[in-house]
Each structure stands twice: as C-alpha cells, then as structure tokens.
Amino acid sequence: MKFTDIFIKRPVLAGVISTLILLVGLKSIFAMQVRQYPELTNTVITVTTSYPGATADLMQGFVTNPIQRSVASAEGVDYITSTSRLGVSVVSAYIRLNFPPDVAMTEVSAKVQEIISELPREVQSPVIKKTTGETYSLLYASFSSDQLSNEQITDYINRQIQPRLATVFGVSQVEVLGGQTFAMRIWLNPKKMAASQVSSAEILSALERNNYQSAPGETKGLLVVKSVDANTNLTSAEQFRNIIIKAKGDSVIRLQDIAEVDLAAQSYDSVVKMNGQKSVFIGIKTTPTANPLTVVKDVRKTLDQFAPNFPPSLKMNIAYDATKFIQSSIDEVVKTLLEASFIVILVIFLFLGSLRAVFIPVVTIPLSIIGVATILVMLGFSLNILTLLAMVLAIGLVVDDAIVVVENVYRHLREGKTPFEAALIGTREIAVPVISMTITLVAVYTPIAFMGGLTGTLFREFALTLAGSVIISGIIALTLSPMMCSLILTRDSLDSKFAHRVENYFDNIAKAYEKRLKKVIHNRRFIVFSFGVVMLLTTLFMPHISKELAPQEDQGIVMMATKGPQGGNIDFMEYYSDQIIDKLSHYEEMDLLFTLAGMETVNSGFGGLIVKPWSQRSRSTHSIQQSIQEDLSTITGVQGFVFQPSPLPGNAGGMPVQFVVNSLGDYQIIYQIVDDLKQAARQSGLFIAVDSDLEYNRPAIKLEINHDKANELGISMQDIGTTLSTFMGGNYVNRFNLLGRSYQVIPQAPRAERLSEQSLKDFYIPTSSGKQISLSTIATTKVSIEPNQLTQFNQINSATFQAVPMPWIKLGDAIAYLENYAKKNFPQGVTYDFLSESRQYIQEGNALMQTFIFALIIIFLVLAAQFESLRDPFIIMLSVPMSIFGAILMLFIGFSTMNIYSQIGLVTLIGLITKHGILIVEFANQLREEKKLTKQKAVVEAAMIRLRPIMMTTAAMVVGLIPLLMASGAGAASRFSIGITIVAGMLIGTFFTIFIVPTFYVMIASDHHPKTSEGEQLI
Q1: Nearest-angstrom CA–CA distance, 764 and 190
Q2: What is the distance between the alpha carbons of residues 957 and 952, in angstroms, rounded to a whole number?
Q3: SS3 of 372-391
Q4: What is the Cα–Cα distance from 199 to 764, expressed in whole angstroms?
Q5: How many CB atoms neighbour CB 540 within 10 A?
Q6: CA distances from 593 to 193, 324, 328, 560 (A)
Q7: Nearest to 983 by CA among 849, 887, 882
Q8: Beta carbons within 8 Å of 137's beta carbon, 6+ residues apart
Q9: CB atoms within 10 A of CB 795
Q10: Minimal CA–CA distance to 321: which of 137, 480, 540?
Q11: 549: helix, coil or strand?
C-alpha cells in the first residue's frame, strides 16, 4: 500500500491536516510585520569635527587624517570617505551590511577617543553620529508661521515636538532641517575695539570669566544638608552687554561699548521653503527592526494629537510620506495576488471542463499561501513586497502538483474506474513525480537562501516563501487532493457538453502532437542542430542586454540637487532657489514642492517635487524628471541635477552614478583627470547631467605676514590668529542658560565688517606696548583660487564623478562606459571605485549569476539522487537552456533589463521548466519497466499522456503572471521585470521541451530495460 492510500481511506485525517495548516497560517499572518523590504541593517557612522576658520589643508592634515586613520581599523568597517573643507572635517565610516550597529558605534567611538589628544586644542569635540537605515527620512513635516521667527519655530520644535516624536516606538532619529538655533551673538566692532585699545583676547577672556558655570556643592549641618547655587552665569542679552572688558581708574569699558549683543541665530547658512514659504522641516528616520508603516502612522497620530497646543500662528504640513509608496506597492501586489488567483482558476476550468475538478486544485491556493505564513513567522520574516511577490508567483506553482494529481485521476476515471479506484491508482502513479518536482523546486531556491550581501538579504525571504509554498502545496497534493478526488469527482461530471468539448479538443491536440513528435524524433539531427543554434543565439544575445541593479520605480517624488559657485552665499542660493520654485510651480502633477538652500555647504541645495497619486496623473516621474532637468538647465546661476530615489535600500543616496577616482598624487592632478572625464561624459550622450565634488573654484584670501616686522612690534602669531578667528571664525566661547537649555555664546564681527579682503585692514592687532595697529601694517592680502574641499576614499586622495544617466541609458551601460574610459585614459597609479547605487551594482551584479550556476548543479545532483542516474537528469535539464533563451530574447529585444528581478526570474525558470521534463522522463521510465516498451514508444506515450498536465501547469503559471505584465503604479517596474522573464521563458521553454526532451531521451537515455523487438524501430 502506498502512503497516499492512507489519506484516501481516511478522509477526516486529510481534512484535519489541511485545517491545521489553514488555522495556524491565519494566526501567523496577523503576527507578521508589514514592511517595504526585508529587514536589513546598513549603518553609516559620521565623525564631524569643527574648527571654525581653519582652512581645508589644515583640517585634513591635523584633524581628518588622524581620525580616519584610527577609525579605519575599527571592526565592521567596509570603507571610509572623508571631506575636509573650511572649518569642518567629516569622516564617514560605512559599515558592512547587517553588521550590528551598536557594536560598530562602540568600535568607532573608541577609536576616536584614542586620538583626541592628537587634535589641536582649539578644535571642538568630535560629534559622532550613527545613521542606521535609509539615507532619506520616511517622513518630512514642515512648520511655518507668519508671526514667529525661524529661531522661535526651531526652539519650539526642539522643546515641544522633537522630544515627543523621539519616544515613538521605532523612531531612531528626529532630524531638524533649515532650523536656526538660538545663540547669544556678540557682534564686535573692530574700529571701536581699536579706539578703546581692547583686543580679541581680552573679549574672549572676559566672556569666559564672567559667564561661568559653577558647581559650588552643598552645606552639611548637623542634621540638614543644603545645596548652594551660585549665580555665576549669565542668562540674558542685557547681562552680557554689561560685562566689563577693561577698567582704568574710573573709566570702565563694557561689552556694549564695543559690540552689539542680540539673542539671534547660531547660523544663517540654510533656508528651507515649502511651496515658496519659509519653513522648518523635521525628518523622521526609523530603526531597521521597526515596521515603517506603523512608525509613520504613530508619528502622524502624535503630531495630530499635539497640534491643538501649537501657537496660533504655527502651521504644520506633511511634506513627504514615503509610506504612501510602500502602502501603495503592497496594495498593488495584493491586488495582483487576487487577480492572479482568479485567472488561474479560470484557466484550470477551461482545461478540465468541470467545476468539481476545478475545486480540488483551487483549494490549494489559499491553503499554500496562508500556510506558508507559519514558516515565515518561524524564520522571523515579514510581509513585504518581496514575500508578497513570491506569493503571486506561488499561485501558479502551488496548483501544479494538485493539477497533475487531478488530471491523472481524471484520466483513470475516463477509462471506467470508480472515483475511489481512480484516486488510489492515479495518486500512486503520480506520487513520485510530485515529490520529485517539489524537491526540485525547493532545491532551486536553496542557493539564494545562503547568499550574502544585499541580494541575499533581500531575496532570502522571497526564495524561502516560494520554497515553503511549494512544500505545503506538495503536502496538500498528496493528502487533501487525492481525498477530494475520491469524494468529489464522479463519472457524471465528465458527461456535460462542455466537458466533452474540452476532452475532444485536448484529444485532438494530443493526436496532432503525437504525429509531430514522431517526425521530430525521426529527424533528430534537426533538433540537435536547433538546440545548438538556440545555445549560440543565447550566447550572442547576452552581452548586448542592458544591465542595471534594479529597474527605476515611480516612487511619487523627483529629487533635485543644486550647486552654486563656490563664492555664492546663502542669499545667492536663496535667490536661485526662488527661481526654481517659480519654474516648477506650474507643473500640474505637483502636490508639494520643497527646497533647501544650504545643505552640506552654503553653496549647495536640495529639493523635491512630490507629485500627486498615481491615479491622478498621466505622466510618470521618469517623464517629469526629464522635464524638470530641462527647466533647471535654463537657470544660469546654479547647476541643477534631477534624480529619483534608489529603487533598492541600503545605499548612501545621491545621484545613481558615483565614480571615485583615487590617486596618491596631488589634488590638482586628480582634478584634471576628473575634469577630462566630465568633458568626455558630456560628449558621450549617455548622461543628462554630470558633476564632481572637487572643483578648483573657491576664492580664497592669502594673508602674507611680515614676520620680522611683527616681531619688532611685539606681535605674536597667536595674537593674529586669535584676532582673525574671533572676528571671522564664528566659533563659540562657552554657553549660557535660557529656560533650562544651553545655547552658544558666539563673538564675531558683523557681516558689514567682513565683506571682502579690504575689511581685513580694519582689524587691529595688539602690540607688546599695549597699543593696537592695523593688520595691514604687517600683512598684505592676495586673492587666489583653491579647491572647494579635499576628499579622500579609504585614506587616499580622491574625487567623485557624479552623474545622472539619460532616461534610456541603463546604469550598467553607464558604468561600463566609465570603466572603459578609465582603462584607456587613466595614468598609471590612478585607480577607481564606486559609491552608492553604482557600488551596489558592482558588488551585487554577478552574485545571482553565480547562484544560477550553483542552482543548476544542485538540481542536477538532486535529480541524479532521485533517478539513480546521471543520464536522466541531464535529459531533463536540457530544457533549461531553451527556457533561458526565451527569457533572454525578451530582454535582448528591450522589454526589460538584466537586473536582480529578472535574474531571480531566470533562477525560477530552472525549477519550473525541469518539472515538465520530470513528468515525461519519470513516466517513460515507468512504462518501460511495466510494459517493457522501447525507448521510443515509452517516451512518445509518456509525452502524449503528460501533455495536458504540462500545458495546464504552463498556462496556470503564465496566465497567472499576466497581472504582473499589466502592472502599473507603485512597484510596477520590478513586477514587470520578473513577470516578463518567467512568462517568456515558460512559453518558449515549454514549446521546446515537449519536443527536445523526448528526442534526447531516445538518443541518451540508458538502455537498461529488455527490448521487445530487434533494434530501435521508429514508430
């Protein structure tokens, strides 16, 4: 007795097993997180060090190099970038994917502490910041008011809103953009200081002495302890104004005599506007383990609940919500899931012609899709776009086993057996092929489950969801489906007119197929030749297929980076930011438009055009992107670069093409190399916009000091440095308390006193005699041009070429151009690397291809073990190249690109197409053993009998994926890419398989069964 007989004879047992699968699966679904992508941890740790007024050279030599040298040895670091510019050093350590963020933070912090003593004493303490998760925030909210100042709005956000949002579960960071924090600004008047014989050093000393944070301690009596609070600090502008700087007899010089003191902004170097109105933004970033949909929902709820407490004039708007795209993507996949289920049910009905017969495989769909949730929960997976996409593909897969069982039982029923007998015999015959097909499909996805890197992290859940669905469908096909066949199928169900028409139709197809198959086997040389031609064409097509990491998705936003001349200040950037707003405000697809002038540097900006929902616009963001780029090119004051968010998580953001040029040579050499590359890139026609982060266009004032004359006058270099940094640096001296929070005290000359190099003549330096002389007495000025910043990649001098490809140019083609250019034109000693999305493409590009080859080997070994033969698996797998050719042909024509989704489709095809070969070869072997048939007779009969289930399973998979081919809206590009690969591969592969497998079976299969006639006579 076969084990399948148990479930036919004990129907309640079969029903209980399926019911348990359903109930536990439903419970598991409600316990799963809902996310956009599987959980992954990409961490960037940034060490920012300020030394106001210091040149880029000084920052790199004395600050950046010691820090990055130490941080580079921290555990978990993948690569390091650094930027040194005027007054600021930024060292960014990019941590390996999925390395524990807290461990990395601890490591980097320890390495920074090791070299603190090597930094100049004037340097502010390094600020170490950990960013885990996406580069861009999931939610941006804007705050504006026509009555409150920017400083007041910022202070309100910091005191009232930020603390509330920071406690929302899953929020990792609440970032304030465009805010201006309060500071005590002391605007020094150099002329009044000189007239009063007051030096910069005396100002700094007076501020330190009079604004002192004391900690007196406490008194201890016999029974009572009292704390002592000494009022040694200052808390208002009036108190600062009354600070005594100098006193001679009855003459007293106070701070108000030589300076204006105001409670103003700490910095004026950024301006944020939403729809043209000045605003302050907050950005919400989530932890890697948090459910982004839940986090954003809770954040919005918190904001709405607190909104009634806002000052009357304060207005809040949600500028950007990334979860709209996430939710829309998930909704689209769920919709596709339902559409595919309906279509598959219709296809099965058309093939079987009986509603009773249709009901049996249809039950497999919800049981497998819901039941696999139990496996996902056990593995710690989530409901995301990729697991849901796997469920869409699974619809066509999970019915295959049940279809094969039902069709075989159906065949025996037509031969006159009772439903019970037909179920017993039919299931016994098909049990081994069903198990073989299930094991084969599971084996296909096993290599993906063990992949590393981004591809492995993303598609592990996809692969195991499919594998789990197939396992459950196999269990159902051998337990529930045979039981239902014995109880539901009847001979009367075969007697309807429609059923007879279906039977006659497929009988005619089978007879026609039998005739053609015999001719093909007779002309087997033509089949071998055709097989060789297909293999050759596949090889020729492959190099000419466009490649990219993933297809660009319409995510509902178009991003803009702007770059002004190095001499441009915040007023300059705000002026051109307003021009951008005027240019783009007429777009009918626009929902919101925000701009940020003064992003990382004063002369850089950022913006975004958030478009209306997909159903309310006719143009995609790809089309809008091109239009915006054309509009920005008409604005001559700034450069504009338009791009879209990366289609995959885990990169550093920015423009899609980022090509790093490394050299041990001088920056002037690197600049020239990158400048030549930019010229060539523009002429190539591949890029819509090009840029680089290294420019020799920053105007600088060189101060040539006459050291001999300075020494004669008793002027020290420290006095000169202190005077210059005090008047122009903007460094803070100490802090003061305002309503329970500390703010910086910043002495500086007002803007009117430092407009140009001529202003330096009005700066006065104290001499040893106590008198003050003009700086022009001992120094001359000269204007020169310097690099805007000094960057390094892995501690080597570098510059990064950045670009946005033309809409019709794929990322892989752009990268291939840059690599070819580098090989031909870069001098010896100059190397290159990649950042952001380009780096992901290089790292992940061949990962799935290697997995593809590994999957072929695994399946061959699994089939060899099942068939106890090396020839049979080889025959079965001859159908794989045919299927791959079908997919490659569509990619070559241009329906899609070679990306990680289409590559996953290619891996999936291995398992799908080998199922057909298994059905034919397994049954042919049975016929040869049971009926003692020749190879030709056995394989022709097996192919003819198995033609109908092969056609049904192919139709179920292909037609079930039609919703993917017709996809629109959020996430449509990735769904289409995997859909077209599988559909084309299955259609063309199945057509070849039903002729090639039988032909090669006759030629190659082992002749280990006794022959019934002499020779191998063709039928």
Answers
A1: 7
A2: 9
A3: HHHHHHHCCCCECHHHHHHH
A4: 8
A5: 11
A6: 47, 17, 21, 11
A7: 887
A8: 175, 283, 284, 285, 320, 322
A9: 17
A10: 137
A11: coil
Q: Which of 912, 835, 838, 867 has the alpha carbon at shortest distance from 1008?
A: 867
Quick check: 275 and 142 in contact, CB under 8 A? Answer: no
Q: What is the DSSP string of 144-185?
A: E-SSS-HHHHHHHIIIIIHHHHHTSTTEEEEEEES---EEEE
The pair of three-digit structure tokens given for residue 18, joined into one six-digit string: 């399926």
Amino acid 666 reads D
Mean pLDDT by 10 residues, the chain (1019 residues): 77 89 90 82 89 86 93 91 90 90 91 90 87 78 89 91 90 86 92 89 91 86 85 90 86 91 87 85 84 89 91 88 82 81 81 78 85 89 85 78 78 80 84 80 79 80 87 87 84 70 83 88 86 91 87 85 84 88 88 84 86 84 88 87 83 85 90 93 91 85 87 88 86 88 91 83 85 87 85 92 89 92 92 90 77 84 84 89 92 88 86 84 84 85 85 84 79 86 91 88 72 42
Can you tell me the distance from the alpha carbon of 321 to that of 284, in angstroms, rounded to the nearest whole number? 10
* Cβ atoms 43, 128 nearer than 8 A: no
pTM for the whole structure: 0.80
Q: What whole-number distance in Å separates Cα of residue 695 and Cα of residue 799?
A: 9
Helix/strand/coil percentages in the chain, nearest 5: 55, 20, 25
Which string of b and e fits 227-254 if b means at least 16 CB within 10 Å?
eeeeeebbeebebbbebebbeeeeeebb
Q: What is the DSSP letter of 726?
A: I
Residues 6+ apart with CB under 8 A from 651: 42, 135, 836, 837, 839, 840
Q: Measured between alpha carbons, how far is 562 from 264 in angstroms, rounded to an integer?
A: 28
- Tell me the longest C-alpha to C-alpha distance in the chain: 133
Residue whose structure tokens are 């039988």: 998
- Bridge-partner residues for 45, per DSSP? 93, 130
Length of the chain counted residue by residue? 1019
In the structure encoding, which two tokens stand for residue 628, read together?
Answer: 């915006």
**Contact assessment for residue 819 and residue 838, using Cβ atoms and an 8 Å cutoff:** no
The structure tokens listed for 57 are 């050279």
